[in-house]
Write a structure and sequence with these properties.
Number of helices: 2
Order of helices and strands: HEHEE
Radius of gyration: 13 Å
Strand content: 25-35%
Oligomer: single chain
Shape: flat
Largest sheet: 3 strands, antiparallel
């Protein structure tokens, strides 16, 4: 809790996505998050992730960015 709401996660995500997008031939990026966490949903959507349904275990929401 001490480091929440300081923008650290947002900066980390920007840096991570930048690095991931350098991968040759990459067509999409997938993430999973708890579907009962609206903060996570909003956070990932702000980066362009779109929900596509539940993961294979039917426990977490799967979201992707098409590149």
């Amino acid at each position: 809790m001490k480091f929440q709401n300081q923008g650290i996660g947002r900066v980390a995500m920007v840096l991570a996505l930048h690095e991931i997008k350098q991968t040759a031939g990459l067509r999409e990026i997938e993430i999973c998050y708890n579907p009962s966490n609206p903060v996570a949903e909003s956070f990932y959507q702000s980066f362009g992730f779109h929900e596509v349904g539940m993961d294979d275990d039917d426990e977490d929401m799967l979201a992707i960015i098409h590149l």
